[in-house]
Specification:
alpha/beta; Rossmann fold; 7-stranded parallel sheet; 9 strands; binds nicotinamide-adenine-dinucleotide
Amino acid sequence: MNILITGSSGWLAQTLIPLLRKDGHKVTGIDPKPSPLTTITGSIADRALVARTIRDNGITAIIHGGALHKPNIATNTNQDFINVNVTGTLNLLEEAIANGVDRFIFTSTTSLMISQTIRDGRGPRAVWIDETLAPLQPRNIYGVTKYAAEKLCHFFHAEHGLPVIILRTARFFPEEDDMAHAISQSEPNTKANEFLFRRLTVEDAAAAHAAALARSPEIGFDIFIVSAKTPFSPSDCEQLMTDAPGVVRRYFPDYESVYARHGWTMFPSIDRVYDAGKLERRLGFTCRTGFAEILRSLRPA
Ligand SMILES: NC(=O)c1ccc[n+]([C@@H]2O[C@H](COP(=O)([O-])OP(=O)(O)OC[C@H]3O[C@@H](n4cnc5c(N)ncnc54)[C@H](O)[C@@H]3O)[C@@H](O)[C@H]2O)c1
């Protein structure tokens, strides 16, 4: 395929573009920030540039990961977020239709599912988060504009039949403003803990995009949470809030001794769980790395 990747100078693209090239695809990258993986240095908010890029490169598929995201809230205006995340997405969708692009993958975020109430984490039980969670009340301009972009994607699918898959991706690198759990843990300890309920590797994030690309025409339209497979089930939610180590111990009886060797600890409380089960059932994709694999890598050989 002739694929346009937006955000080609970013963290995800560094892993995704080589993966797609290895699979034999031709990749054109667009990003305002230059990098060796970026073919076109410019913005998706520039409609004429988007049109030229798609037409001149014979683009047949788009993976739209370019965005202003959570860390940019501190440095950019609300209008910047609208311009890039909403208008930029609209430009791509309209030019996709005009130029016969046959599939569109949108990198969204689990963050848009987190209302202020969920984030405050004061409920009696952890919130079980799958694609049915409603109503969605994103709590910041990042979530609001990603949600608006999702709605545009759905609208273009409904109006024009464009196959679109939306990947609501959990975190695949640490972002400082959301490290509430990390008060007493080192960064590797925090990351390891998060693989239980809200994290994946960048390699898995890239592989999920490749899988979505392959299956998109047959699926038509759908939304998937992308996160490492959680060992938890909804029946754990109450205890997760009051005694997360106790729940983890049931699934991984030796985790405390493995952790102790590294001076690591579990979060006392876990307030949400992302369930990527639909991704496995409908798209046939499961992240390779979950908490079990992390724990295995920590055990003595
Ligand atoms: N990193 C995470 O943990 C995480 C979690 C959930 C969702 N996501 C989403 O995944 C995608 C990729 O994230 P990342 O971690 O690689 O972030 P990143 O910031 O490293 O990459 C995003 C890229 O988009 C580019 N960009 C910004 N404005 C643009 C514009 N006007 N036109 C084209 N490109 C533009 C940036 O320059 C950057 O290179 C984003 O859409 C992000 O919202 C990331």
